[in-house]
Each structure stands twice: as C-alpha cells, then as structure tokens.
Amino acid sequence: MPTSKSIGERFNFFPSDEEVEETMNMFGQDMKIPENFRMTAPPHKESDSWNMPPSKYYPNPQSTEFCDRLKIKCVNTLLCELNPEANGVPYYTIPQNEEIAIADDDDREEGVEKEAQGVEGLFEIDTNPTDIDAKRLKLDDADKLL
C-alpha cells in the first residue's frame, strides 16, 4: 500500500476537482442511483439442503453498466470469463409465470389445471387415474388386473 513516503506513487485517493468533474460528465451530471435491479441468481428455497454444491456465478448487469460508464474493468465480467462453465443463466432472463395457483381441498382439480398452465405440451395430466392403460403394462401384469 503506498504511503506519503512512496516516491512516484499516488497515496492520497481523495478525488481532485478535475476527477469529480470528469465523473460527473460521465454520468451526465445525474448522480441518482438508477432503479435497474435485476435478479441474477434464483431465489433461495428453504427446502434446499445445506449440503448442496457451490452455487453458480451469475453475471451482474448493474455492475457491468456502472463500470462501463466509468470506463473501468468490471470484476464480474472478469470472473465470468475466468471459468465460463461455472456461470449460471441469469434468473431475470428465464421467463417466469406470475400466477400462483392456490388450491383448496374443494377445488383441487381446478388448482391442478391452473398449475398446468404454461406447461401445456410438455406432459399430460391424467385427471381420471382409475382407467389403466394395459398397453403400458407388461403382459403378465395386465393378466393379473383382469
């Protein structure tokens, strides 16, 4: 760490008037903190085990934008470039369903249908599980059911 006895190295990092003016110009004289927060990591679930592997690293767009305006290197970008396999997909880029289905015992079937919205075509929900599809069972098992 440089000190006042260091020769040729800056030790006092209070900004000069010129540095303050240059920074103000970089931000267009607007020093208001932007409300541009975006969730990068998925929300924590209480059901997650504490023994889980280390979480992925998620690029942070707010830091990147801030560093770009200051014309300095972004540590987040450097970390992402260091090991791309350790990066996760930023949570804000994953489409989210804003609806939350809450089913009472009386309207359980209606709740199941609401939960299925947005996943149509991925799988089929059997609303009448008493019918047995014998084609899917082994022949021996089908004989036992008759």
TrEMBL record:
Region Disordered: start-end pairs: 37-56
Superkingdom of origin organism: Eukaryota
Name of protein: DBR1 domain-containing protein
Lariat debranching enzyme C-terminal domain span: 3-73
Organism listed in the record: Steinernema glaseri
GO terms of molecular function: hydrolase activity, acting on ester bonds
Annotated GO biological process: mRNA processing
InterPro entries in UniProt: DBR1_C (IPR007708)
